[in-house]
């Protein structure tokens, strides 16, 4: 009797599905796990941030310093003028703790809120904003982040994202590279929502301080579409496009019947 090798009809060690299909199912499961874990930990970060008082935050970050190489300007009159403007806006924003202003010489036109109660202004912003109202809106936007505690939320979620990727798959692993876009998409969407909230808060603060909404869109109009991402990249961007932010502000001005009057020229000390 001749031996004829044959395959068993059922073998649990051999899948009858396509390897491509199995890879897609596995990848989908990993991404879903990352997203669920990130969302749960993100909610935990928001819960913890809501319980960190400004006083506790100042104590935690009391040793924080501006990174070396980007030292603050030595123009004390500029610092003091910015501080006075910020203190006035702070009252309109219902922030009852001090916020320190740090002006840094740089070609960058931007500002950011730092943990511990500081706002960094990069002097390149004076090249794109031409009125005190325009500068005030940028400051009020950063104050809005303080009011909503966005600076701590962003920091906490960033740490969660980094730690989750490193703990589960190892830093720089192939799985991390595959799942990063999906998780980053969720983080970017959350960041854009917080930026939109800060814009809305800045508009209310501007109207409270000056009595009208003039200058609210000045910074975004000056920056223009050249700084916006491409057609697909907005989904991965941490900030909304300038065009959409201008449209949202104009709609809010119209809906809330805010006046728009002549703006206050930028003081010479800011130039």
Automatic annotation (TrEMBL):
Choose one Gene Ontology CC annotation of this protein and give it. membrane
Q: Which cofactors, by name?
A: Zn(2+)
Does the entry feature the keyword Zinc, yes or no? Answer: yes
Cofactor remark: Binds 1 zinc ion per subunit.
> Transmembrane ranges?
23-45
Alphabetized UniProt keyword annotations: Hydrolase, Membrane, Metal-binding, Metalloprotease, Protease, Transmembrane, Transmembrane helix, Zinc
Pfam families found in the cross-reference section:
Peptidase_M48
One annotated GO biological process? proteolysis involved in protein catabolic process
Xref: CDD domains: M48C_Oma1_like (cd07332)
Specify the Peptidase M48 domain's residue ranges: 96-252
Q: A single Gene Ontology molecular function, please? A: metalloendopeptidase activity
InterPro entries for this protein: Mito/Outer_Membr_Metalloprot, Peptidase_M48
Family membership noted in the UniProt record: Belongs to the peptidase M48 family.
Q: What is this protein called?
A: M48 family metallopeptidase
Tell me what organism the protein belongs to. Desulfobacter hydrogenophilus
């Amino acid at each position: 009797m001749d031996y004829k090798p044959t395959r068993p009809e059922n073998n649990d060690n051999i899948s009858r599905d396509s390897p491509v299909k199995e890879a897609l199912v596995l990848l989908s499961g990993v991404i879903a796990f990352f997203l669920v874990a990130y969302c749960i930990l993100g909610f935990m970060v928001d819960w913890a941030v809501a319980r960190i008082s400004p006083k506790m935050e100042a104590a935690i970050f009391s040793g924080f310093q501006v990174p070396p190489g980007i030292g603050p300007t030595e123009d004390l009159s500029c610092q003091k003028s910015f501080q006075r403007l910020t203190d006035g806006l702070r009252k309109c924003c219902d922030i009852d703790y001090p916020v320190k202003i740090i002006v840094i010489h740089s070609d960058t036109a931007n500002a950011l809120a730092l943990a511990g109660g500081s706002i960094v202004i990069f002097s390149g912003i004076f090249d794109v904003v031409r009125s005190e109202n325009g500068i005030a809106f940028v400051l009020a936007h950063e104050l809005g982040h303080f009011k909503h505690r966005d600076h701590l939320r962003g920091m906490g979620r960033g740490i969660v994202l980094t730690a989750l990727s490193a703990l589960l798959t190892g830093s720089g692993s192939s799985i991390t590279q595959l799942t990063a876009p999906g998780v980053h998409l969720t983080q970017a969407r959350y960041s854009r929502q917080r930026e939109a909230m800060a814009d809305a808060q800045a508009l209310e603060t501007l109207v409270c301080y000056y009595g009208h909404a003039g200058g609210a869109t000045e910074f975004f109009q000056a920056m223009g579409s050249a700084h916006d991402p491409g057609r697909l990249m907005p989904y991965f961007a941490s900030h909304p496009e300038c065009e959409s932010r201008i449209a949202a502000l104009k709609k809010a001005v119209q809906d809330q019947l805010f006046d728009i009057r002549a703006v206050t020229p930028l003081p010479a000390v800011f130039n």
